[in-house]
Structure formats: C-alpha cells, structure tokens
C-alpha cells in the first residue's frame, strides 16, 4: 500500500475446489480524481465463468471514468448472448467525497465505520439478460470508512466472524482467511477497502 493512495485495498481470492481457475474477476484503480473497484462473478464456475467475468472487468477498465449506471449498462450489453455474470461496483469521487455503489445479483457489500456496520441489499438479476432497473446508492464517505465487497463463495457464517471495522484492512483479509473453510464450495473473492484520507 502506497502512502499516496487515499484508498487502501486488500483481496482474498480462491477458486472453487477442483477447478483450475476462479470464475470471479476484479479490478481497481485510483487517480487523483477518484477510485473505482469492480467485482464480477461469472455464472457457474471455472473457465466459462471466468470468460464472462473477464468481459465485464475489461469493459469497466476501458470505461472507468463512466458513472456506475453507465458501467452496468455497458457491461450488460457486452454480455448479451454469453454466459451471464453478477457485479458489484464501488466508486469514490475525491472532489465531492461521495461514494456510489451498486451490486447486481449475489455480490454482497458491507460499509463499516468504527461505530456501525451496514449490509447493502443487492439488486435482483444478473448481467447478460434483459435490461433491468437497478438502484445505485450514493452517500458521503469519511476517512476511516471500510467498504467490503464479496462474491457468493463467502458464506454468511464466515462473514459474521470477520471484523469489518479493522483499521488495517489487511487484518480483515487475515481474519477471513483464518476462519474460512479450506475447501471452497464456490469461487470466492473478498475485497476490503478503506478510505484513509
């Protein structure tokens, strides 16, 4: 983690037991204007799931300056006729200090501060299907806020034991690794982010 970054990030990722690759893909980037992180989980697991999730992430890389709404719409269009994917996107505008996020399908998200934890309810559906309406949540972000995004390989029981408000987000990943099962029933990705300044 660089001292110049406003968002610190740490990631846990593991393929479903018996598969050679993980069907989840993720991307993040920070500029002087903002930050974007996306997590896509291709339907199913293995190589075909990876292809769909990679299409979504490549699309977001190419259009990282677009709004969350635009990114979802572009990614949905790219997946028409292919195996679908679910998606979580988290963006921060450093000028306004507003974060925007949306999760479609079974990508989970939690916002945690020292005082409270809020689980985000995802939009129903998946990308690659007919166009649906979806909500994008926007709120002010303050230093010390943690944002955790995860694919459906992360089990609720495992989540209940993770300490979301750790000041060092690497500790969130370490605690998850410690309590999570070695044998994965599904592709698993957990991304921990912290707004530090």
UniProtKB/TrEMBL annotation:
SUPFAM superfamilies noted in UniProt: PP2C-like
Superkingdom as given in the UniProt entry: Bacteria
Domain PPM-type phosphatase: 6-195
PANTHER family membership: PHOSPHOSERINE PHOSPHATASE RSBX
Protein name: Indirect negative regulator of sigma-B activity
Species the sequence originates in: Oceanobacillus bengalensis
């Amino acid at each position: 983690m660089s001292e110049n970054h406003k968002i610190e990030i740490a990631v846990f990722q593991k393929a479903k037991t018996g598969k050679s690759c993980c069907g989840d893909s993720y991307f993040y980037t920070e500029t002087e204007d903002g930050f974007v992180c996306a997590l896509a989980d291709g339907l199913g697991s293995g190589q075909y799931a990876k292809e769909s999730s990679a299409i979504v992430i490549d699309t977001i890389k190419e259009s990282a300056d677009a709004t969350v709404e635009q990114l979802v719409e572009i990614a949905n269009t790219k997946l028409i006729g292919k195996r679908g994917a679910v998606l979580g996107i988290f963006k921060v505008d450093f000028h306004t200090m507003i974060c925007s996020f949306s999760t479609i399908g079974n990508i989970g998200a939690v916002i945690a501060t020292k005082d409270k934890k809020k689980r985000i309810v995802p939009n129903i559906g998946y990308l690659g299907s007919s166009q649906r309406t979806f909500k994008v949540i926007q709120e002010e972000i303050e230093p010390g806020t943690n944002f955790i995004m995860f694919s459906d390989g992360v089990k609720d029981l495992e989540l209940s034991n993770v300490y979301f408000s750790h000041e060092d987000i690497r500790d969130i990943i370490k605690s998850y690794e410690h309590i999570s099962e070695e044998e994965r029933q599904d592709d698993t990705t957990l991304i921990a982010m912290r707004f530090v300044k």
